[in-house]
Amino acid sequence: MKKKNLRRTAFTAAVIILIITCFLAPYAWVVSSSLKNQFTVFGDVSPLSWRAFFPVGATIENYVTLFQRTNILIALLNTAIVAVAQVALTLLLCSMAAYALTRIKFPGASVVFLLILLTFLLPIEAMMVPLYQVVSGLGLSNTLLGIIIPWIASPFGLFLLKQAFEELPVELEDAARIDGAGHVRIFFSIVLPNVKVPMVTLGLITFLFCWNSFLWPLVIVQDPARQVIQVAVAQQGSLTQLPNWGETFAGATVATLPLILLFLVLQKYFTQGMATSGIKG
Amino acid sequence: MKVYHIVFAGLLGATALSATAVQAQDKPACTGESVTLRILRTPGNFPYPKPMEAWQKDNPCVQFEINEVPFAQLADTISVQAASSNPPDVIVYDGPNTQSYAASGILLPITKYLPKGWDDDVLPATKAEHSYNGEVYSPGIEQTTVAMYYNKKLVEAAGIKPPQTLAEAWTWPQALEAFKKCQQGPAGAATVWGLGPTRFGNGQPGLVYQDLPYQRSAGDPKADPSSSAFKTYWALSPDSKSVEGYLDTPEAVEALKFYQSLFNSEGVAPKAGIPNAFFDGKACFYIDTPAAGNALIKDPKIEWGTTPIPYFKTPVVHTGSTTFGATARSKHPEIAAKFVVDMSWGEYAYMNVSQRGNLPTLKSLFPRFAVYNQYPMKVFVDQLQSWGQPRPPGPKFAQYDKIVSEALRGVAFGGDPASLMADAEKKVQRVLDR
Amino acid sequence: MSTGEQTLTASAVTKVRPRKAATRRQKRERLVAAGFLAPFMLLLLIFQYVPLLVMARNSFYDYSLLNPAAEKFVGLRNFADMIEYEDAATSFGITFLFALGVVLFVIPVAFALALFLNSKLPARGLVRTMIMLPVVTSSVVVATMWSFLLDPSNGLINGALDAVGLARQPFLTSTGQALAALVAMTLWQQVGFGAILFLAGLQGVPAELSEAARIDGATRRQVLWNITIPLLSRTTLFVVVIMTVFSLQAFAPAFLMTQGGPQESTNLIVYHIYNTAFIMQQAGYASALSVVLLLVVLAISMIQMALLRSRWNY
After folding, report:
1. B254 and B275 share a domain?
2. Which residues span the domain enclosing B104?
3. ipTM, interface predicted TM-score of the complex
4. B281 at the A interface (CB within 8 A)?
5. Is A117 within 8 Å of chain C by CB?
6. CATH code (residue B272)
7. How far, in Å, CA of B233 to CA of B46, rounded?
């Protein structure tokens, strides 16, 4: 009996260690390589040694040159601005639209809902060429606004909040309505404060989507001073130059670290949001 | 809260923009109206500040605003900005694109702005590359080509003496022997490679610029125009409208089989890039432009030499570098054209070219570059003048480049040369036919 | 009874009330609704529907982004070209193969992980965090990581293979292995998300069912096979569709790691569209490809909705 338990425990432990290794190892390698100089990055890989994952004699020179020579810093800044703006605007627009659909009776509500439902199915990557033409036609090419504006009216956000509003009991608002409060007042002082969790979830998922977005900013922004972080990282080592591995790793670390930290702190909201809604931005 | 952010974003955007604007110090006063020329270029490229400032002394009413993008984004940026309502006035771009930009109406013809004597002084290859339908669209400013560098210590230790003049240049089979002798470590996983990886792109083989000459050199430019030897050499019909029978030829396939063996059966060249391989002593031979030599002259990390690019039947190297021109939709076409032409002529040309480290396009300037008058850099000049050919020119060069580079890369990775080249012909022809 | 009468009287009273007041209130409601909805719908129309129409229209033209004014009307030629030349079929085929590979591997692995996370075994929190890390990492960073992991000369995976005495692999430089390598990478990135979805599904399965079966003498495996999995069919379908749609939209791996090669073995359709529009300067043909991709995704989503509606609930 004991032997079986021991074997089972050993097997489980082995599986757990394997999983953790598979998922953690690449990150460990990237981060520790970003702290090495050109020569040791290669040296510790073949023949493979534990030093590949642990920066012996760590140096931050890659980060220094990264911030000095490339546009990473300004890209980070741009991404932060864009992400915050996109989250704020998405939350505002989607909550307002969800409120209208769930709390106000008006003709054509089902048509409107159908229109929104249909766009859910449109793959954004397939539409980048015409979207590019529309956005540049509006004069928003190469602007930060141009990066966020196609995504603020998010069908996913609408569905998430619509679901949340529908679960909110109407009695709270009825009381206020009898007192004579209009829709705007009710929206801001009663409904919104009671949907904090879905709003935070939507905000986080929007932030995630915005921070990680690559294809659209690549297409719409050409000026490196206005580019976002993922594109900046992807375009390092251009200028007909081979990538400097250490610098590229440093760039990748910088591009992903803020989001990982955010995720670690707010894990619950992330996983909950993804599970209940089931669609990643 | 959103207004705050929009304002903040605007402020940051403005700061970023102003950080890239060049404010000139003009001493003589401007008597006419002030003009700002917007220049789009890659970082570290011409036109350089010194000649620009000198030019401004003669043209005090002109200011500059410079926008830099990495080379990998240059083509995309140009296609977006040139077609917009607010295009840059001057663009720096990859030379072989001149005809396609001219055909799409992006570039301004500058034939009437060229100085007297330009026709005689400019290199024929340059003029051919930058002309379209009888008009010149870019004066060209520099030329470059590649040669084969070698690590003196490693090569001499292996008992090899590479040729130093064009007359004694190696054939590819001879070069392969040298690669094999010098290489250290097992084939395909060497510690010191016979032939180091390229530094262009992501380091993988296949770029038309560097690797198309393998098959072109198996052809014969003077053969009968309907023969496959002729077509192998030129790799595109003279009227730029047909490619069928120019890539998938018996001579090309032979040459490509050899090319493929470098990366596979002989294992003397790696399939993926290795940064700084040659400079770190990890490669015996290495193909690159004069830029590498100039860097080594400034900072001699290793002892080195140059040898001409090997060939099969007819030696050939690709010319063409970045160049610049005035945009057709510029709001100040006359001034932009004048600027472009001036920067590429006389003293200004010398200033620009010498800072960049490549070769000039004006024959009169060659004597001023002492470093090119003797070995090892003389190999570049000789190659340029005797063997130099532009990459197959035409309005659809960008697409040709992408498709054929893909095919060459496929060959290097082990694919069948004949079918890959046949496939490439089909794809390129489809683009040419539109 | 009395309330019913009261309601009846109330509505009768409402009906009797002058129509003007009701209409005015209705009008005001509509205005408010419009106010709340307008920003959203306006942006939706401009940035989702207008591009859709532009794309449909452009698919009948031949033009280049360098010089869009010089467009030529070519009718159905773009679509005919898709049949005549092989690039579209190859690209769609590659993309479907890629999607198939991802789905086939993600489903069992994610399910197994979800079972693990749903159990009482140790280190669950740690494992859950680990498998979610790639999900929140951008496709750019994942692609960068993996192109170095897979580098034939200096990559970590080849270094590991070497250390245990196995042969080094060409990975992305081989037509045979490149797509498989991308599938492996996508599996690594997405399995955490699949696991979370399955976990949510598992937690929705009433415990009484499996308990009752266990009391009746069923083994753990029988419970799993005959009760849990069938009840998760809805979740499974959901995960399949999510993974398929995600795979059909994959771009960064092809763009950053292989440029569609070698020999188009990884020429995912979205990359092919990008390449056709921005590098080959054939924006009309790219629009036609986009239209077909759109229809394919629509079809898959509709099939999902139909299937979901017909599944049994518990």
Report:
1. yes
2. 32-140+322-357
3. 0.82
4. no
5. no
6. 3.40.190.10
7. 32
